[in-house]
Design goal:
The complex is a heterodimer of chains A (about 200) and B (about 300). By secondary structure, chain A is mainly alpha-helical. Chain A has nine helices and two strands. In chain A, a hairpin with a 2-residue loop joins β1 and β2. Chain B is flat, with a radius of gyration of 31 Å. In chain B, about 25% of the residues are buried.
């Protein structure tokens, strides 16, 4: 499982000072500074959006809208939380909106776009090594399909908390802060999400 | 601890979200309750089977996002209106007095209206003294009194300049031209000329910026060419790695791999391994494999 430090490009303590200076420069209208900020965080933002929304176009929309909002509202950033938290609050809100719209529009398809085209969501989860026996591969494929359907049964908030904790390695306290809720509520979401995962995969393990 | 509490805390514990004391209690309970111990084992396996690798970002998506964002920010910046002087004055008011704002705005407008009636003609440079064609950008607009506007504009005058690329002033103008979103030809020509001065750190930075974010692949290729002599420098090497992983143009990636593998730095092994796994272009894959083998590094990651 990814740890917090391994997944996110979080600046080291020394870098925090640099980041504050970069943010201030960007607030004064320095476009190069703004670009530096974008490049520090945009890979994590895009990966999160891609993982949650499972569509290049949706992830692209979230990326554009998030950084345009950051650009327009950077003047209002008062350093009362980390820039990372502030940015992720914007991104998670946009992703939640997309997830809710998707939920209303249709029962989500089980597909996701990858470099090899559109494939089943479960198929983008870790693959067995080549050469493993077919029985095991089939079993693993079934497990991945179940994981995909368990993700479908989660509410947008459960999905968000699960993704941020499981894949992004963020602490529940930080997740609560980003989603404008308490750590306790984030804990409940994670609990329900793992219960759904357990119901889906119980027979396999 | 009861079995019920154990089950409630278990998922959180597996994600490291319980206190030290709670973890101790969970361990103690699992030692005495076989069913809960099995439950913990099962949930651990379930969470492990979900995997830790998130869905990948398709190649080229990041660079497309960056390029389009850059263009939108340029458009956003040029259309965003500066707040009028009275809006800025009102914004400075204490937020708790926000109810006063509409009233104050009305009062200011009234003063403007009466002022316009009572005051003699101010006189100004007037629009007649400005050639609208020479206005490159309107910086500020407000209305002092009804019917009159005050503008602050940038004016352009066409001039022909000649000089050496080594001249700092000429270089600055060329670097400025790299930011013109409307003319890729101008940017390509500027990058080409600046390439001969890449011994200058500012020029190299400008070329790296073009390589990373110019929407035109011809411009990016020329920027790459301009940086060739400095491929061993860490910042250029980082930019080359980024291009290899994100640029959607295979010709640029092929050029970048040739530059990158000239200097077999062990720090690039991770990028080369990723290319062996993900790159769709066989030339780039084979170059990566060759470089890894020459570096005596493994082709895969474990």
């Amino acid at each position: 499982m990814n740890t917090h430090g391994a997944t996110l490009v979080l600046p080291a303590q020394a870098g925090v000072m640099d980041e504050a200076a970069t943010i201030r420069a960007a607030q004064r209208g320095d476009q190069a500074a703004f670009e530096r900020l974008v490049h520090t965080y945009d890979q994590s933002v895009l990966r999160l959006a891609m993982n949650l929304l499972r569509s290049s176009e949706d992830a692209y929309d979230v990326y554009q809208e998030a950084f345009l909002r950051v650009h327009r509202n950077l003047q209002n950033f008062r350093f009362d939380c980390s820039f990372h938290t502030w940015l992720y609050r914007i991104v998670t809100n946009l992703c939640l909106d997309h997830l809710r719209k998707k939920k209303v529009r249709r029962q989500e398809s089980m597909t996701v776009e990858t470099e090899t085209g559109i494939v089943d969501r479960a198929a983008v989860l870790p693959e067995e090594r080549p050469g493993s026996d077919p029985q095991r591969t089939l079993f693993s494929h079934e497990v991945r399909a179940k994981i995909g359907s368990a993700l479908q049964t989660m509410t947008p908030r459960e999905r968000m908390v699960f993704e941020l904790r499981h894949y992004e390695g963020l602490r529940l306290k930080a997740i609560g802060e980003m989603l404008g809720t308490t750590e306790e509520a984030a804990k409940n979401c994670l609990f329900r999400a793992t219960q759904k995962m357990r119901s889906a995969l119980g027979e396999f393990v | 601890m009861t079995c019920e509490t154990f089950r409630e805390l278990l998922p959180l514990a597996l994600y490291g979200e319980v206190s030290f004391e709670e973890e101790e209690q969970l361990d103690e309970h699992a030692m005495t309750c076989e069913s809960c111990a099995e439950d913990r084992e099962r949930l651990t396996q379930i969470i492990r089977s979900v995997g830790s690798e998130p869905a990948g970002v398709p190649p080229g998506l990041l660079s497309r996002c960056r390029r389009d964002l850059s263009a939108r920010l340029t458009a956003d910046g040029s259309t965003r209106r500066q707040p009028a002087w009275w809006e800025r004055a009102l914004a400075a008011l204490n937020p708790s007095l926000s109810w006063i704002k509409p009233a104050s705005a009305l009062a200011l407008l009234s003063i403007g209206f009466l002022g316009g009636r009572l005051m003699p003609d101010w006189g100004s440079s007037g629009s007649g003294s400005i050639d609208p064609a020479s206005v490159s950008r309107v910086r500020y607009v407000d209305s002092d009194i009804p019917g009159r506007v005050r503008l602050v504009v940038d004016e352009t005058r066409q001039r022909e300049l000649t000089g050496e690329v080594s001249d700092a002033g000429i270089r600055r103008i060329l670097m400025g031209a790299l930011g013109d979103p409307s003319d890729p030809g101008l940017r390509a020509e500027s990058v080409d000329l600046l390439g001969s001065s890449s011994d200058n750190a500012d020029v190299r930075q400008a070329l790296v910026n073009s390589l990373r974010s110019d929407p035109n692949s011809g411009v990016r290729l020329k920027a790459l060419e301009g940086l060739r002599r400095y491929a061993a420098e860490s910042e250029i090497r980082d930019a080359l790695c980024e291009v290899l992983l994100t640029d959607d143009n295979p010709a640029i990636r092929a050029q970048a791999i040739d530059m990158l593998v000239q200097h077999k730095d062990t720090e690039i092994a991770g990028v080369l391994q990723e290319l062996v796994r993900k790159e769709e272009n066989s030339y780039i894959r084979s170059q990566s494999l060759k470089a890894l083998s020459e570096m005596k590094a493994s082709a895969g990651t474990f």
